[in-house]
Specification:
alpha/beta, Aspartate Aminotransferase, domain 1, Aspartate Aminotransferase, domain 2, 2 domains, seven-stranded mixed β-sheet, four-stranded antiparallel β-sheet, 11 helices, 15 strands, globular
């Protein structure tokens, strides 16, 4: 099987070996407050800090999912004003979480072919953005994230990096709250997320210690400083992350590889008659590539792909029936890409 689904995605090739080692070491049967698990948390966090170039004063926490991180933000800073700017389904869902929590929320939707709109934003404490929008295969360039921070230095910037963390460099100095599930660019089994908080976000969260939510930052950050969690964590996921970060190259190297392969992918698809959903090359994601075609042609392509052993991503949200998505994550090899391209040459949705 060839796995190109954009999450849960293809696992890193050494996950089975690492899992066997973790069970042999007995880590999954340890008390989560034991020295062994605290050491596991510490090594995983230090590995992330080293390989992803996370600043030394940014806190690293582990949660159950990126979706939980949406709620943690809104609950930890309840009453703050949130400015959500999005062009796809996941950015929209995040905004709705804050609305349902009762936070003052302004939602601004823009076209997936347009650059991030930053001028004259309504007043808010937070700006919430999606780095790579998985639903449609778009991307906010790092230069625009830095521009947002420069234009609004008094605001905190929250970034959903679910389809970029571990694959694409993140401009940490522009961010205050960054999170991602591990089942995409990090190539690990689902069930855990990484949450990174700037010193400013940490200070503000601790000042709001009146919050009663169990996994609020006010409760979680003091424990994270001791490499612990509020709850029994996903110990297997944490141990796998520890082993992964000891093995993978620095993210700047991975970033270069993925961007180069994405350019190859986009050029190949256009040269061979496929229609890309995102027409503006400046807003195309390096990690999720989205094709569009009439619904019946998409359905036929997906069916034939499955019969030939290729697991492709379904369309999502408003693009559910008329698109399919192809992951471009680090665990996928060039040989697998060539195999998929060979299959696609037998099927031209434009014909």
């Amino acid at each position: 099987m060839y796995f190109f689904y954009p999450g849960p995605a293809k696992l890193h090739a050494l996950v089975p070996q690492w899992t066997a080692e973790i069970f042999a070491e007995g880590l999954t049967s340890r008390n989560h407050r034991s020295p062994e698990i605290i050491h596991c948390y510490q090594r995983a966090a230090e590995g992330l800090r080293l390989k992803l170039h996370i600043p030394s004063d940014y806190a690293i926490l582990f949660t159950s999912s990126a979706t939980e991180c949406w709620e943690i933000l809104g609950q930890s800073f309840f009453g703050n004003r949130f400015m959500h700017i999005f062009n796809g389904s996941f950015g929209e869902k995040w905004a709705k979480v804050n609305q349902k929590l009762g936070n003052p929320t302004h939602a601004l939707r823009y076209s997936y072919n347009d650059l991030l709109p930053l001028n004259n934003l309504p007043a808010s404490e937070w700006i919430c953005l999606t780095h790579c929008e998985t639903s449609n295969g778009t991307y906010i360039a790092n230069e625009l994230l830095l521009a947002a921070k420069e234009l609004y230095p008094e605001r905190l910037l929250a970034l959903d990096a679910t389809s970029s963390l571990g694959g694409i460099c993140i401009p940490w100095q522009a961010t205050d709250y960054v999170f991602a599930s591990v089942q995409k660019c990090l190539g690990l089994p689902s069930g855990m997320a990484v949450l990174v908080c700037s010193p400013r976000a940490t200070t503000l969260a601790l000042q709001l210690a009146h919050t009663t939510h169990y996994n609020s930052l006010a409760n979680s950050l003091p424990l994270a400083a001791q490499y612990q969690t509020t709850h029994t964590p996903n110990i297997l996921g944490m141990a796998l992350l520890m082993k992964l970060t000891a093995h993978i190259p620095p993210v700047n190297e991975t970033d270069c590889t993925l961007r180069q392969r994405a350019r190859w992918w986009y050029q190949w698809l256009e040269n061979n008659g496929f229609d890309l959903l995102v027409g503006n090359a400046a807003t195309r994601s390096p990690t999720v590539i989205t094709l569009q075609a009439p619904a019946e042609k998409i359905a036929t392509l997906k069916k034939q792909a499955t019969l030939n052993g290729f697991v492709l991503g379904n369309g999502y949200g408003e693009w559910k029936d008329t698109t399919l998505r192809i992951a471009n994550f680090p665990a996928i090899t060039d040989q697998e890409v060539l195999a998929l391209q060979k299959f696609l040459l037998t099927f031209h949705p434009s014909k």
